Amino acid sequence: MTAHSADAMRPRRFLPNGPLRGRVRVPGDKSISHRAIMLTSLAVGESRISGLLEGEDVLATAAAMRAMGAQVERTGSGEWLVHGVGVGALLQPGQALDMGNSGTSTRLLMGLIASHPIQATFVGDGSLSRRPMGRVIEPLSLMGADVTATVGGRLPLILRGASPAVPIRYRLPVASAQVKSAVLLAGLNTPGETTVVEPVPTRDHSERMLRGFGAELNVELEPDGTRVITVRGEAELRPQVIEVPGDPSSAAFFVVAALLVEGSDLTIENVGLNPTRAALFDVLRQMGGSIEEVARRDVGGEPVADLRVRHSPLRGIEVDPGVAPSMIDEFPILFVAAAMAEGRTTTSGLDELRVKESDRLAVMATALAASGARVEEREDGLVIDGTGGERLRGGANHPITTHLDHRIAMSMAVAGLVSRSGIEIDDTRPIATSFPTFEALLDGAAAEGTSA
Ligand SMILES: O=C(O)C1=C[C@@H](OP(=O)(O)O)[C@@H](O)[C@H](O)C1
Ligand SMILES: C=C(OP(=O)(O)O)C(=O)O
């Protein structure tokens, strides 16, 4: 059973809204939270984590690490205490690992287990069971792991780790931080040097954090921008005190909502601005958005600032496909912004969006068109002709189908705020995978705007 399959679907109509005002604080970064639980579980001794995202995806990672012997305990809101077992000492889980909706949990944990002498079964919900795992099965098999997967390299699958695993030099055939991280994590318990060659840079939290935990990790930059990342095993990780910065992918929904709703002036606190994550904010600025960074600082080795966002008329642009990996999860909400910009926004190079929790190109094209936007779906992107600031018409008779995809649900919720008649989405439950407080924060910022 997956995290939210037990209860009924939870539809909601998101209604047109007045300005968003005040301050909101988004929860901890999902990518960093997963890695914080995994790496502290591998460090011998006691680590503390604060600001952990307590979304279903991260809880799935925590449950898996517990099932493999780590002590992972919640001590307060976002506060966690972890006693790790040591690299090489993961225990064989007694039951299948339920990954719920989470691609990151699945692919990174496959990497960890691949170099341990244990076996694990991975299962997930309907969305995750359609996603491709061949991209991690391939390099992990080269390292000696044995994988029996459902046809097409999908879940459910059984992975038997290799001991000792074989170090490899692997060139990423797809720009994916999950594949990169899976190989590096497998490298932790592999004698010798495991190298990932990354032609297109993707989020670098694994590299930053592995170094912070004391792993021997080296990154070389080639003249054409290719990154060559090498980790030496068998590594020993030291326990840490970790503060997780706020998630820019969650902040994105509030940034776009405030830009689009007239009269808004909203500050989003504690937003992680790692350059491998923050391209959406640059793209929105290029479109004319007023997004000001306040109190730039460092949190847990990552750049962070508060973002003050004021309503701004937006202009359509051609989005450089080169920035796609640095905003890969933000395209659904960018499409909503584009639907209300003046003129045409063109996106391309987005094939990866078709293999996320849903086919985000097809699903967003359908959802926006059903809400009155002018959208053309191309093979690797969307072309959107915006309204020039006018509100979208809003939903017709049918609710928007979210396909178990949190980012579709939150993007169309924001579209509802900037519509004339509101937009109903079929199920808000997937939102809890990455942003359990989304609805409360959105309702709160709207109420602040009404009373101002
Ligand atoms: O490494 C990570 O934490 C993630 C990498 C990205 O996936 P891909 O590696 O599949 O691009 C992203 O979409 C996902 O939300 C989180
Ligand atoms: C793609 C996403 O996550 P994952 O791959 O971990 O399911 C996401 O959060 O948008």
Walk me through what this model shows:
This protein folds into 2 domains: 12-28 and 245-451, UDP-n-acetylglucosamine1-carboxyvinyl-transferase, Chain (Alpha-beta prism), CATH 3.65.10.10; 30-243, UDP-n-acetylglucosamine1-carboxyvinyl-transferase, Chain. 29% of the residues lie in helices and 25% in strands. The chain has helices spanning 30-42, 56-67, 103-114, 134-142, 177-188, 205-212, 248-260, 279-286, 331-339, 360-370, 406-417, 438-451; strands at residues 12-14, 21-25, 45-50, 71-76, 79-84, 97-98, 119-123, 146-150, 154-160, 169-171, 192-198, 217-221, 227-233, 241-243, 265-272, 290-299, 302-310, 344-346, 374-378, 381-385, 423-425. α1 (30-42) packs parallel to α2, α3 runs parallel beside α5 and α9 runs parallel beside α10. 55% of the residues are buried. The protein binds shikimate-3-phosphate and phosphoenolpyruvate. 3-phosphoshikimate binds at residues 30-31, 35, 176, 178, 329, 356. Monomer. Phosphoenolpyruvate binds at residues 30, 103, 131, 178, 360, 407. One of its GO terms (molecular function) is 3-phosphoshikimate 1-carboxyvinyltransferase activity.
Q: Which helices and strands appear, and what pairs or packs with what?
A:
Elements: E1 12-14, E2 21-25, H1 30-42, E3 45-50, H2 56-67, E4 71-76, E5 79-84, E6 97-98, H3 103-114, E7 119-123, H4 134-142, E8 146-150, E9 154-160, E10 169-171, H5 177-188, E11 192-198, H6 205-212, E12 217-221, E13 227-233, E14 241-243, H7 248-260, E15 265-272, H8 279-286, E16 290-299, E17 302-310, H9 331-339, E18 344-346, H10 360-370, E19 374-378, E20 381-385, H11 406-417, E21 423-425, H12 438-451
Parallel strand pairs: 2-15, 3-14, 6-7, 10-11
Antiparallel strand pairs: 1-21, 3-5, 4-5, 7-9, 8-9, 11-13, 12-13, 15-17, 16-17, 18-20, 19-20
Helix pairs in contact: 1-2, 1-6, 2-3, 3-4, 3-5, 4-5, 7-9, 7-11, 9-10
The protein binds shikimate-3-phosphate (S3P) and phosphoenolpyruvate.
